[in-house]
Amino acid sequence: MNTRFRFLAALLLAAAACTAGAATKTIQLPPDGAQLTPSPLPGYAKAQVNCVACHSAEYMLYQPPTAPRGYWEAMVKRMKAVFKAPVPDEDMPAIVDYLVKTYGNEKGR
Ligand code: HEC
């Protein structure tokens, strides 16, 4: 955590403490797409570690639901090659498996 973020976090905490109890608060949860869709597949946890550091999980939802396994494989490879996503090679098959079964054409299989 860098110091600037820590300073911001402290500010936010202080602000929250000042206003706590003053008024009824409503907490706006992010839309569902901001989180990866939960799954018992082993690739779910790996995708949480490797695929939402730079952008939200919403990016997965914008992909065609007809996208086959090869499409997701190419996507993960592209994230690695073009954007330097630190995805370990041995985790790629599990991640692709999770993606195609959660967002692609193997959904529900
Ligand atoms: C190092 C940062 C980084 C990581 C980690 C990362 N991505 Fe991305 N991803 C990007 C950027 C930057 C874009 C936007 C590319 C663009 O606008 O064309 C993107 C775009 C996408 C898109 C939108 C489609 C597209 O072609 O632009 C999808 C889907 C996606 N990423 C999936 C993944 C998956 C799956 C993983 C995990 C294996 C992952 N990303 C990890 C940086 C990252």
Automatic annotation (TrEMBL):
Keywords annotated in UniProt: Signal
Coiled coil: none
Top-level taxon: Bacteria
SUPFAM superfamilies: Cytochrome c (SSF46626)
InterPro entries reported for this sequence: Cyt_c-like_dom_sf (IPR036909)
Stretch forming the signal peptide: 1-22
Statement: the UniProt record of this protein carries the keyword DNA-binding: no
Keyword Signal attached: yes
Name the UniProt record assigns to this protein: Cytochrome c, class I
The species this protein was found in: Ramlibacter aquaticus
